[in-house]
Amino acid sequence: MATRPLEIGPAGLHAARAIEHIRLALGLTQHQLAAHCTAMGRPMTNTALSRTERAHRRCDIDDLVVIAAALGVPPTALLPLGACTDAHPRHVGADARGRAQEALLG
């Protein structure tokens, strides 16, 4: 029996938009971000990243964590506000956090 794919919910849609916005704010291409993720030990193609950004592919927690690290932001920066507590400041510089917040808030 074939299974029905899970629909991407509001948090997944937010994460998809956040990944794209932060990537663009940092001036990275999908190829570059995917290469950073691969170099960090999580193989990712630009096609997988593109499908994630367009919400055509679910972003699992391992992908979310490595994408956030490759973007230089805490994973919580990719989640809707109120979804998690603030990240520990020692993990990310204030400059990266500021760029991420600016990218999300426009």
Automatic annotation (TrEMBL):
<dbReference type="Pfam" id="PF01381">
    <property type="entry name" value="HTH_3"/>
</dbReference>
<feature type="domain" description="HTH cro/C1-type">
    <location>
        <begin position="19"/>
        <end position="78"/>
    </location>
</feature>
<protein>
    <submittedName>
        <fullName>Helix-turn-helix domain-containing protein</fullName>
    </submittedName>
</protein>
<dbReference type="InterPro" id="IPR001387">
    <property type="entry name" value="Cro/C1-type_HTH"/>
</dbReference>
<dbReference type="InterPro" id="IPR010982">
    <property type="entry name" value="Lambda_DNA-bd_dom_sf"/>
</dbReference>
